[in-house]
Amino acid sequence: VTAIDGERLLAGLRTLRSFGATGTGVVRPTFSADDMAARAWLRDRMTEAGLDSTIDGVGNVFGRSRRPGPALVLGSHSDTQPEGGWLDGAMGVMDAIEVARALGEDPTTADLAVDVAAWSDEEGTYSSCLGAKGFVSEVDPGILADENVDGESVADALARVGLTTVPHIRFEPDRHIGYLEAHIEQGPHLEETGKQIGVVTSIVGIRQAIVTFTGQQNHAGTTPMHRRSDAAVAMFRFGTLLQDRMAAAAGPTSVWTIGRVTVEPGAASIVPGHAEVAVQFRDQDDAVLERMAAAVAETADEIDRNGPVRVIARQGDAPIAPTVMDPDLLGHIADAAERRVPGGWVEMPSAAGHDPMVLSHHLPCAMLFIPSIGGVSHDFAEDSTEHDIVLGCQVLADAVVSILRSAVTPR
Amino acid sequence: VTAIDGERLLAGLRTLRSFGATGTGVVRPTFSADDMAARAWLRDRMTEAGLDSTIDGVGNVFGRSRRPGPALVLGSHSDTQPEGGWLDGAMGVMDAIEVARALGEDPTTADLAVDVAAWSDEEGTYSSCLGAKGFVSEVDPGILADENVDGESVADALARVGLTTVPHIRFEPDRHIGYLEAHIEQGPHLEETGKQIGVVTSIVGIRQAIVTFTGQQNHAGTTPMHRRSDAAVAMFRFGTLLQDRMAAAAGPTSVWTIGRVTVEPGAASIVPGHAEVAVQFRDQDDAVLERMAAAVAETADEIDRNGPVRVIARQGDAPIAPTVMDPDLLGHIADAAERRVPGGWVEMPSAAGHDPMVLSHHLPCAMLFIPSIGGVSHDFAEDSTEHDIVLGCQVLADAVVSILRSAVTPR
Asked: Taking the C-alpha atoms of B400, B401, B404 and B409 in order, what is their torsion angle to the nearest 10 degrees?
């Protein structure tokens, strides 16, 4: 059984952390100077691991094994949130490099083909999962026009960092038999249940409803209570009632959030004439998402019927369907986890989005999670124990060997 | 009995409307070019009415009668809201000019002393009731530093319009025995009750509470419902519960409004960590205001106790105490109204703020209202019937004669 080098893995992670380090966190948004420096460094690490390495035309760092296929692609993203943690994405990239290197150094596994990817812009500084999209299909003009908060488009950013004329690395259907990614959980489930490894069965689907409240703007002094049509009052009632309705409609792991709230005109002495909320909800099961969507619509209808404010619910951002991971690949990860930590793993959905949302439409995908301390992520405080980091990488390596061996020698 | 000239009054009002006319409304914010042009025109109208007229060092247009006292000051403001109606303030100014002119032209009343004021910035483009404050006391440096939305201070605006070195017209305690103002109601009470004249007994007091909700900002996908401390959910519950609590605490004419709502960070996929609302409430009775303040605090406490979000209520803008009008002056207005429209008048509080909030601390004040069509104000659609406008001015004139006659010949 090939052992990964835990100290080497951790040392590499600490170096990657230094690109954009800010306190205990990392600020390394896509196509920033720190991001591009990190990508150059990652390319050199992939070369060091024996891979033919390049930064491609959408910013992906890709290291291709010189072995013939069948090959697995391992990876994650190396860009961060505007105020990100040091492990979100970075750990999966360094795990992938370590697995490729460790297997390449071990004569018993040196024949196995492991390609490594550090995808660009999973976090959507410009366009979510940009690199993964470029790997499986053409980057269409709509994506090239997507902008960051400063108004720079993907096309302009690629020109700025010198990637406009660089070729895109593409998915090879005859070679690539699957994609594996290790990631921190970014939630508290593993910690709460005392498990070391999460075998990720799916990525939850996301839906969004925009609910608008249209009343009558008026003077907050001279308009008697019985004459008011106050958009904020209707919104408060909607927000309160929705909690009960969603709790009834939801599954055990569903989440729902009213994260964006606007009340207009927003002056203390004016009765609000307009309000709007964004209701976002997530579940791994499309049937549950349907029930939750109905609960939002019914709650809006009920507040509307009660009057006097007009309440309308419509779809917000385009729905994201749940992503189902490949059961065969998952079985290998589960077996590997059971061998390393008997009883210490659990099947679970991912509540956060990841590159397999894009990749899984083209090749089988699977993910494993390690615990996040306190469930914290997208925050400078994000962390995991060194023990869990090293264990996760070893389980990944074990699963890779098992998958590639069974691909040539069906089990 | 002196008759005012209704056609002359309406013609003047239409001309004043032309300064800053925008559709059916008026945009004439304090110290704008339109506002200053209107003030120059008003000064000339006051001169035409036989008054010694000037624009003073805070922008007030003041016309002083050449008759010895006792004198009444009549007036209102000539500035408008950012998107104002044509009568708010303007009607009271033109009524005052018409009363001064009509009484001066009538040999039986030409001995009476009526001074006329068009106060500056009642609407608070820079500093609420700036002109009235300048009339009764020194303009302190804090007021001079108040800014409009473009960041121009009162001091800078006065310099720009050339008023920095111009003297301030001041309240004369030995001469001025009271202040009368006619105004549109800006609410629906007169129209709903079928009355033509409102005898304004008080201006409601205003209090404001700021309620903050402090939870834990978190990822809206990976944070399970049972681990959340969602500031928006607590805010929705507060807003809903407050409606019932305020209804129980309020008096028959109380109003309360949550007009300003912020939820942070305000992203659809982040559980809100912070929210804040401004609760404003008004009543003519300080005891009722106390009960309403207690209702806000108790509602906040209850949501806080229910957890997990921390809820704290604190005072917002400095409270404005109710303004009580002078009963003697009110009696004259009521008598005048009863003579013109028997049974067609009603005593009522003003739910909106007016210059007597400032002036009444220095001299007895009284106001009369005429109906607002549909109760609409602070809006281009603001309007009143010509009949009501002319009637209001006549009642004002009658009351002025009655007050000044009783001041020299006690009734």
From this structure: -150
